[in-house]
Amino acid sequence: MEDVIILGTGCAGLTAAIYTGRAQLNPLVLEGTQPGGQLTTTSEVENFPGFPEGIDGFMMMDNLRKQAARFGARYEHARIDKVEIEGETKKLYAGDKVFEAKTVIVATGARPRLLGIPGEQEMYGGKGVTTCATCDGAFYRDMEVVVVGGGDSACEEALFLTRFCSKVTLIHRRDELRASQIMADRATSHEKIEMAWNSVPVEVLADDKGLAKGVRVKDVNSGEEREIPCKGVFIAIGHIPNTDFVEGVLELDGDGYIVPEAGSQVKTKYEGFYAAGDCVDHVYRQAITAAGMGCQAAIEAERWLAENG
Length: 309
Hints:
Elements: E1 2-7, H1 11-22, E2 28-31, H2 57-70, E3 74-77, E4 82-84, E5 90-94, E6 97-106, E7 110-112, E8 129-130, H3 133-136, E9 144-148, H4 152-161, E10 167-171, H5 181-189, E11 193-196, E12 199-206, E13 212-219, E14 225-229, E15 232-235, E16 239-241, E17 273-275, H6 287-308
Parallel strand pairs: 1-2, 1-6, 2-3, 6-17, 8-15, 9-10, 9-15, 10-11
Antiparallel strand pairs: 4-5, 5-6, 7-16, 12-13, 13-14
Helix pairs in contact: 1-2, 1-6, 4-5
């Protein structure tokens, strides 16, 4: 039986692995379907402390992985589909295989909700299609971009992008935003933001280098199509937390995010069972905040093991 099992190899999971490894707990880290998490699809990370020139997302995650391995972290590929965590021994099921541990840290992250239109996947991650203005907005300085969505997140993305971009077109399928009134007012009144009402994207258009050059949108009322030129397509229609395997076991909110115990960011109602990163946090969703939560979860697990053996 393991002292610690960590689910996920994004910033939260690997930071937890570094801390539990340094505590000589010999953590077992289970990789899911996307080793390294969302950052592996990001061409350059400029806002993680300690990298004044920025760092390639894949390289950053590979560095974290090697750092954790240096302190004794072990890796195995498995996708957990069921858990039993009420007793002293936590059981994690991956098909017919069962893993047992005294403590578990869930850091399975979240995946962005995408549009599912032609061109989107081909240009996702460094070629013009992205899901994080905070991460990638500065790369589009003095360029025209579009944001797809109509909620608070879409408005926040659009407003943030006005710091860098010459023009931001906010594409929404209705004739009014579903964001809070204050956010909607800020977005619609901003001189750099243009609204594309009653419109849905149907294709991301590429130039001869395979980079985004525009979006084809369709008017939901008339059916007419037109092209909006842009260099960046920011999709802000929400995220899907990777928490299906704990549904019915842990408390989840209406969007599927794990709800921590009151007074803690990482504790759950089960002793020795913790959650960290984007499977919990639907507000910040940054590499640095995920890493911080992974640190917290690791320290909590270490303390729990010290007190309970």
